[in-house]
Amino acid sequence: MSSTSQKHRDFVAEPMGEKPVMALAGIGEVLGKRLEEKGFDKAYVVLGQFLVLKKDEELFRDWLKDTCGANVKQQGDCYGCLKEWCDAFL
Fold first, then answer.
1. Could you name the domain of life of the organism this protein comes from (predicted)?
2. Is there a contact between 61 and 79 (Cβ–Cβ < 8 Å)?
3. 12 to 18, 43, 44, 62, 71: CA distances (angstroms)
């Protein structure tokens, strides 16, 4: 796997708790605001969608693109972040 960002490493290092959606790797201020406007204001709400999609990479990437306009890199960063968090904590 390619190297991960500090944001990614920080996110997967501990339980999610009440972290904001922008704590997810690949989700910055612009995408975060778009997600918040659609009700995805916390990282755990996006995690819920990730789990509803059965952790399927293609489905999650498509959902993220359709929901907030995430590009391919942002989709991959967010997917990788949630997948690694799930592998560690679920």
1. Eukaryota
2. yes
3. 14, 12, 13, 22, 22
Asked whether 75 and 83 are in contact (CB, 8 A), the reply is no
Above 70 in pLDDT, residue 1? Answer: no
Three state DSSP letters for 26-74: CCCHHHHHHHHHCCCCEHHHHHHHHHHCCCCHHHHHHHHHHHHCCCHHH
The domain defined by 6-89 folds into: DNA polymerase; domain 1 (1.10.150)
Contact in structure between 67 and 38 (CB atoms under 8 Å): yes
Written as six digits, the tokens of 66 are: 């359709």
